[in-house]
Structure formats: structure tokens, C-alpha cells
Automatic annotation (TrEMBL):
Motif Meso-diaminopimelate recognition motif, residue range(s) on this chain: 410-413
EC top class named in words: ligase
Residues annotated to bind ATP: 113-119
Compartments where found: Cytoplasm
Name of the molecule in the record: UDP-N-acetylmuramoyl-L-alanyl-D-glutamate--2,6-diaminopimelate ligase
Gene, per the UniProt record: murE
PTM remark: Carboxylation is probably crucial for Mg(2+) binding and, consequently, for the gamma-phosphate positioning of ATP.
Keywords carried by this UniProt record: ATP-binding, Cell cycle, Cell division, Cell shape, Cell wall biogenesis/degradation, Cytoplasm, Ligase, Magnesium, Nucleotide-binding, Peptidoglycan synthesis
Species, as recorded: Raoultibacter massiliensis
Pathway the protein contributes to: Cell wall biogenesis; peptidoglycan biosynthesis
Record-listed N6-carboxylysine modification sites: 222
Signal peptide start-end: none
Keyword Plastid recorded: no
Cofactor(s), by name: Mg(2+)
Length: 493
């Protein structure tokens, strides 16, 4: 599938120094993954500068260097250099060029927000499938192409990997793709040059401030998906001030917008909701028409996800009857308020696993469990290492909305697990007798189950679908769902 330099950089403001007809056979941004006749993009990163790896890229076979400043190398006489203002943005646009703009050939739905992205992508995928479309998903849990599931390194892949995915989906005749769009991806231009049919916003709560530094910068990164950079139809939850601000901006731009939420002014809003342990019964007001149905997901925050997915289905042009049919048989989302099954269920204890790893998500998950529980609610949680430390005491405070909490290790990465816990517990002083610390995650889960009586519920929060634990440079096998089932069974013997 090669492209000449001239073809690859069409529409990109650049200066080509050398042979504009040089053939490019691939795009690379890591010098150790360069293959013969690749174009190597010298990305200026947060820690390293790709310009320092230009010679290594040439040694691996690169014939084209894309740079923000000319590099002078001893062994670069037959190398074409392309000088651009921003190598990240150029890489994204060039990747779209290289794969012949695959996002134009699919209906792409981009979903952003702090919480709810994964669940909403799964719901949209299911709606599109029921509507007769061939579907794909890109997000935290992995990549779906039709019925095939693959793991992914990032919620939103780097631009060459993303465009390659789109091309694979196009070539496999996928019609509709639901994609999680992270704030990092937007800030790092991973989605630049991508065409969206619909963009959707769920909510904004504290997360990723280790990267964005301020809440305003975090919001503005998300808001780019609703700007002129990404024209599309919009679905916006207006339950927080950030959704309302996005609505204001999109209204000024005269975008097609469907609003969702518990806010009385939302175009899609609940008339009544009944929460059960296995499902939810809802009556939705959809632009003045009421739809009554049950769906097999639990919790208030899933009402928000259901409404968002309903709005996206409408923006994709599906009949309301098709959307209701699909939502009535919605799939279980991996690691999202997922009930643990096992022989130990005869204890009368309900155990759930959820990905909640922000204060808002943890509070909402606990509230959802409490609404389903006759007895007390016990939460097991921790915080990730090498991430925003300012949210740790806030997570501790959020955990006190449960009747009891067991503070444990999450993915400590390169931090001491006890140091992370020491950052959490200052937020829990208001409930000093309602929590305990157990740094070993398996023992913490076992302890929570041991504390539970018949009619109680245990929520294991923070890791959800993950089947690993990151400790130092090691990736240890650890699946909350599996471990909780094992400990539940052990407790019943």
C-alpha cells in the first residue's frame, strides 16, 4: 500500500527536503519498530524527544524523517526530511492519508467524558447490531471487529494504529464503530484527521489532573471533540455545568444536538425509574414521546448511559422502536457493576466488580449498590500509582458513602502501595471506625466477604475488566472477578 512523500503529506503544511517521490511503506513513531522504507515521525514527547532517535530509525530502515527542526546526521545522505510545525498533528493527518481516510467510509461515534464511556460504546454497538449493521468498538476493554475481540494498549490508540484499525474495519465491511475518545488522545492529536458521524459527552469529574494539571485544561481537551475541529451530530448529557457549556457552544455553532439527563430541560429524560437487583425498569421521555421498557443493567449511572446511547441511536437515524428493542436486551458490560457468580452465592451475599476509579464513579457505584441492598454495603478500593495523587483523599472520602470500606492496593506501578494508602486515609477521618487497611488485594477482598452477612453487598472497585495488577515493572495475573468468586466460594465452605 505505499504512498509517495508528496501523496502522504498532501494537505499538510510542510517542507520536503529531498525526494518528494520517495516511496513510504509504513508509518512509525518508535525507532525500534521501524521497518524498511518507513517514515519515522520524530515526536516531541513529555519525557523524550524523538529527534534523538533519528539515526536509530535510519539504521532500522527508515527512508523518510518527519521533523520539527532539521536534523544533521552523518549517515543521512539519501534520507528525505519533511519539516512540519507539529509532528504529532502531521502524523495523525499523514496516517489518515496513508490509509485513504478510512473513517469517511464508516459511521464513527466518538464518546468522551470521565465516566460511562465503555458502557455507552457497548450499548451503541448493540443498538447498531440490532439495526442490522456490522459493528466495531475501540476502547478501554479492547477492540471489537465484528465478533472478534482484541486487546489494546490505550483507550484511544496512537494515530497510525488508530487509522490502521479503521482501515481494517472498513476492509471487513464494518458499518458503525463506537469509540471511546480520551482526553489524552484529543490533547495528543491522536484523532486528528478523523471524521465522526456523532460525538457524545457523558460527564466530567476529577481524573487525569496529573497530566492536564488543571480542571479547565481537562475540560477543554474533552471539548475539542465538540469544536469545529470535529464537525458531527452531538449528544450531550446536561446534568453538570460542563455539559451545559458544551450545549451552549454547540448551539452557537448551530450543530444538531440531542440533550440527555435527569435535568428537566433534557430532550431525553427519565419519567420514572425502578431499580431491581437484576434489571432496571424505566419510562423515558424522548422529545415528548414516552417509552417504557426494562433493561438488564443496574444502577443510576447506567440510566445516564442508557439515555446517552438512546440519543446516539437517534442521531444515527435508527427508529426508536429498534433502540428500545436493543436496550431491552443490552449486554453485560465487562467489569461494570458485574455481579460475581459462584457457589458461594448461597451465603446470601451479593458481590459486584466495577471499574470505578474516580471519586464520582465510586460514589455512584456505591449508591447503585446501596439501592439494591437490604443490608449493609462494603467497598474494597484503592488508587493507582504514578497517577493523580490529589484525588486519593477524595477517593477515601467517597468510599465512606458505603457502610464500611477496606482500603487496599490497586495498580501501584512504581509507588509503594502503603504510601498510596497513606495518601487515601486522610480523607477518611470522618469515618475512622468504618474502614480498615489491607494492602494485599486478595486478602482485602476476602476480608470484605468475611465482614458481610446475609443480605449485604460487597463492591470491589477500581480495576473492573482488568485481569492484571501492575507492580513495579511486573504485570501480575489478577482478575477481581475471578478472585472474588474464589473467595466467595471459600467463605461458603
Amino acid at each position: 500500500m505505499g504512498k509517495t512523500c508528496k501523496e502522504l503529506f498532501a494537505g499538510i503544511d510542510c517542507t520536503i527536503i529531498g525526494n518528494e517521490n520517495e516511496m513510504v511503506e509504513g508509518i512509525a513513531y518508535r525507532s525500534d519498530r521501524v521497518e524498511s522504507h518507513d517514515a519515522f515521525f520524530c515526536i516531541v514527547g513529555l519525557v523524550t524527544d524523538g529527534h534523538s532517535f533519528a539515526q536509530d530509525a535510519i539504521d532500522h530502515g527508515a527512508k523518510v524523517l518527519v521533523v520539527e527542526r532539521k536534523v544533521y546526521l552523518a549517515d543521512a545522505t539519501d534520507i528525505t526530511e519533511v519539516v512540519v510545525k507539529d509532528t504529532r498533528k502531521a502524523m495523525a493527518q499523514a496516517s489518515a492519508n496513508f490509509y485513504d481516510h478510512p473513517s469517511k467510509d464508516i459511521e464513527l461515534v466518538g464518546i468522551t467524558g470521565t465516566n460511562g464511556k465503555t458502557t455507552t460504546t457497548y450499548l451503541v454497538e448493540h443498538i447498531a447490531h440490532v439495526a442490522g449493521r456490522r459493528t466495531g468498538v475501540i476502547g478501554t476493554v479492547g477492540v471489537h471487529i465484528g465478533k472478534k475481540l482484541e486487546k489494546s494498549e490505550h483507550t484511544t490508540p496512537e494515530s497510525p494504529d488508530l487509522q490502521r484499525l479503521f482501515a481494517r474495519m472498513r476492509d471487513e465491511r464494518v458499518n458503525v464503530v463506537a469509540m471511546e475518545v480520551s482526553s489524552h488522545a484529543l490533547d495528543l492529536e491522536r484523532t486528528w484527521g478523523t471524521k465522526f458521524a456523532v460525538t457524545a459527552f457523558s460527564n466530567l469529574t476529577q481524573d487525569h489532573l496529573d497530566y492536564h494539571k488543571t480542571f479547565e485544561a481537562y475540560f477543554e481537551a474533552k471539548a475539542r471533540l465538540f469544536s469545529r475541529d470535529y464537525p458531527a451530530k452531538r449528544v450531550i448529557c446536561i446534568d453538570d455545568k460542563y455539559g451545559k457549556e458544551l450545549l451552549r457552544r454547540c448551539s452557537v455553532a448551530e450543530d444538531s444536538v440531542i440533550t440527555t439527563g435527569f435535568d428537566p430541560s433534557a430532550q431525553i429524560k427519565p419519567v420514572s425509574v425502578t431499580y431491581e437487583t437484576t434489571h432496571t425498569s424505566i419510562v423515558l421521555d424522548v422529545r415528548g414521546t414516552k417509552y417504557s421498557f426494562d433493561y438488564p443493567l443496574v444502577g443510576k449511572f447506567n440510566v445516564e448511559n442508557i439515555m446517552c446511547a438512546f440519543g446516539i441511536g437517534m442521531q444515527l437515524g435508527y427508529p426508536a422502536s429498534t433502540i428500545v428493542e436493543a436496550l431491552s436486551e443490552a449486554p453485560q458490560i465487562p467489569g461494570r457493576l458485574q455481579r460475581v457468580n459462584g457457589a458461594g452465592e448461597n451465603l446470601g451475599i451479593s458481590v459486584y466488580v466495577d471499574y470505578a476509579h474516580t471519586p464520582d464513579a465510586l460514589e455512584k457505584a456505591i449508591a447503585s449498590i446501596k439501592a439494591l441492598t437490604k443490608g449493609k454495603t462494603i467497598v474494597v478500593f484503592g488508587c493507582g500509582g504514578d497517577r493523580d495523587s490529589s484525588k486519593r483523599p477524595i477517593m477515601g472520602r467517597a468510599a465512606l458513602s458505603a457502610d464500611f470500606a477496606v482500603v487496599t492496593s490497586d495498580n501501584p506501578r512504581h509507588e509503594d502501595p502503603m504510601a498510596i494508602i497513606d495518601d487515601i486515609v486522610p480523607g477518611m477521618t470522618a469515618g475512622a471506625d468504618r474502614y480498615e487497611v489491607e494492602p494485599d488485594r486478595r486478602r482485602a477482598i476476602a476480608r470484605a466477604i468475611a465482614l458481610a452477612d446475609e443480605g449485604d453487598s460487597v463492591l470491589v472497585a477500581g480495576k473492573g475488566h482488568e485481569d492484571y495488577q501492575l507492580v513495579g515493572d511486573s504485570v501480575l495475573s489478577f482478575d477481581d472477578l475471578v478472585v472474588a468468586a474464589e473467595e466467595l466460594d471459600r467463605a461458603s465452605k
